Amino acid sequence: MIDRRLFRSASFRFGLIYAVLLAASATALAMFLWWATAGLLDRQTEAAIRADAQGLSERWAEGGLPALVVTIEDRLAQNVDDDAIYFLADPQMRRLAGNLQRWPADVTETGVSYEFPVMRAGIRSLAHVQRYDLPGNFHLLIGRDVQVRAQLRKMLTDALLWAVVVVGMLATIGALVIRSLFNRTLSNISATTAAIAGGDLAQRVRLSGRGDEFDQVAEVINDMLERIGRLMDGVREVSNAIAHDLRTPITRARARLEDAVLHAATTDDLRAAIERATIDLDGIVAVFQALLRIAEIEAGSRRSSFTRLDLVPVLDDVTDLYSAVAEEREVRLETALPAQVAAYGDQALIQQAVANLLDNAVKFSPPGGVVRLAVIVGDQISIIVMDEGPGIPADDRQRATDRFFRGETARSTPGSGLGLSLVLAVANLHGGGLRLEDNHPGLRVVLTLPLPEDAELRRAANISQSNGIVTTQ
Hints:
This protein has a 5-stranded antiparallel sheet with strand order 2-1-5-4-3. It has 4 domains: about 5-35 and about 155-190, no CATH class; about 40-145, Beta-Lactamase (2-Layer Sandwich); about 215-295, Helix Hairpins; about 300-465, Heat Shock Protein 90, CATH 3.30.565. It is an alpha+beta fold. α6 runs parallel beside α10 and α7 runs parallel beside α8 (about 345-365). The protein is rod-shaped and about 150 Å long. It contains 11 helices and 12 strands.
């Protein structure tokens, strides 16, 4: 009994499609060859009979019955191939001229081709004839001996039929080979995905090196697995960072509350301990709020609030806010902003991203240092924040946007290591990017945003795709 799973197999369907297409193509080719050869012989016979009929009709019109009899006898005498067949009959169907012994009983209608066996010179043959009725109730039979042509046609037909059978066998073998190759290729992908599902994230799909579509699929799968691996590593790092960064304030808050319970002598002492513990817990809440905000941004839920805006007032508000902070730290905050910068996005998120960059710049700048905020508009919008602090080593810049990552120079400063992660999430949400460069000295951070026209086109394309509409430019 045939396993039903065979018919649900994609490899079986592809092999079957290959076999059917090959068999259909071979059958069509065989039919064309038959029409071009055996069919051509039949058409030549019909053409010769019509030509004879035309010539004999003209002789009848010129000389009547005697001229027709003489013409038939002359044509039979001059027929080198000995394949012409004529029979002229009187009203009683008696032979007046021709090379048949009697009128065939089956030939009763004009304009119809007949094929039947005949005896000619004691040899059995095959005749292809047509009937013509003449004035005076005379009857004329014109035809050709097609025995040789019939044998050739039969040989050709048999050969083409056998060719179709052979092609069918080859199509079956080819279908099995294709099914085997298909299964072999997919088994590689299946084995890899099964290993991944089992927890072995180090497995990758093997490439054949041919650069075909299967290799392209394998490369996409491997890229996806690489990204999954990086995400899993990021999850582990975030989990470890959360456990490490939150353990200290939680432990400190618990210790203060426990110490207050055991040693607080007055209400003021107890209240002070609770306030210090509350500050520690507020820091923990702020970390989780930052994580939730990054997750919200990465999920893209804030795209619904995108609108056209002028970046200059937004950046002015941020610089006004951090001017006081910079002054306290003896840092000078300078700006170089155009009169107007049109953008498209979420004003609050862009403002928060720039605020995080300025906060880091002011925090790490030495007394007397300068923090600069500039905007350059070209084929995209570049928001640049430069400081004169210790900067970020080149080896750490790739990881600087990872959550909770803090370089050696930032260990002694307050913070959770989520600022640049949020800036990167905002940049990605808007279709822009984030670059960290050396400012000699200090750090130069470039937050790029697309021009409003490009951003609106991208948003329209995303909406069309989400609605199942494909648009082309």
